[in-house]
Design a protein that fits this description.
CMP binds at residue 112. This protein is an alpha/beta fold and 208 residues long. It has one domain: Rossmann fold. Helix content is 51%, strand content 17%. The strands form 2 sheets. A 5-stranded parallel beta sheet has the order 4-5-3-6-7, with helices on both faces. It has a two-stranded antiparallel sheet with strand order 1-2. Strand 1 and strand 2 form a beta hairpin. The protein starts with a helix and ends in an 8-residue tail after the last helix. The structure holds adenosine-5'-triphosphate (ATP), ligand L45E5XJ5 and magnesium ion. Ligand L45E5XJ5 is lined by residues 30, 51-53, 56, 73-74, 77-80, 85, 105-106, 108, 112, 150, 159.
Amino acid sequence: METVLEAATKEVNGTVAEKKPTVIFVLGGPGSGKGTQCANIVQHFGYTHLSAGDLLRAEIKSGSENGTMIQNMINEGKIVPSEVTIKLLQRAIAESGNDKFLIDGFPRNEENRAAFEDVTKIEPAFVLFFHCSEEEMERRLLSRNQGREDDNIETIRKRFKVFLESSLPVIEHYNSREKVRKIDAARPIEEVFESVKAVFTSKDEKAV
Ligand SMILES: Nc1ncnc2c1ncn2[C@@H]1O[C@H](COP(=O)(O)OP(=O)(O)OP(=O)(O)O)[C@@H](O)[C@H]1O
Ligand SMILES: Nc1ccn([C@@H]2O[C@H](COP(=O)(O)O)[C@@H](O)[C@H]2O)c(=O)n1
Ligand SMILES: [Mg+2]
């Protein structure tokens, strides 16, 4: 039986390497309910929720030199270069004090996926994929009322296009490795969460 200390550290060539954090990628179209369900998972399962979109919006507000570039990308529904987003994720992971993370809205394209793997050497335990029709997602986004500048019909359509062209291939990548846990997100919030809970409590997800 491994002790807590042994579990937390691994001897590699005489140096002590830190244990890698557990990461679950939370993906799905714009408005599919990723943020809503992550809040529930945090309450029940003790994960730290990191939304790539929220981190980018906070970076704009902080007055960062990348702020204008990020703002322009978000207004166009485009994907910010991985280097920027990964740095924000790494910083948030380091500052969290936790060792298990829901990374929401990332990786959004092949560049995000490959760069994260390359830089962090972290493989997700699994990928939660919230599946929902565009019609329902559009309805949700147009009534979200959180003051997001990208929740207008013109940008929403661009975000849907980017999701289909760039984000779905990432989900297919993980699906071919049997890492995707697909959830029907077109149901009421509580029902969706019942399905989410079933994933997190499944004996097949022991690593989590
Ligand atoms: N199952 C659901 N049924 C109805 N409304 C929902 C459901 N899940 C979330 N919503 C509502 O839909 C809106 C979008 O949800 P949320 O912000 O969680 O989506 P998201 O996937 O994080 O979107 P984005 O990619 O734009 O950040 C919110 O107003 C939320 O309250
Ligand atoms: N990996 C990511 C995630 C998000 N963005 C940009 O932020 C916008 C909003 O993201 P949400 O997940 O909060 O909807 C998104 O449309 C992108 O412009 C990104 O570039 N890279
Ligand atoms: Mg969100």
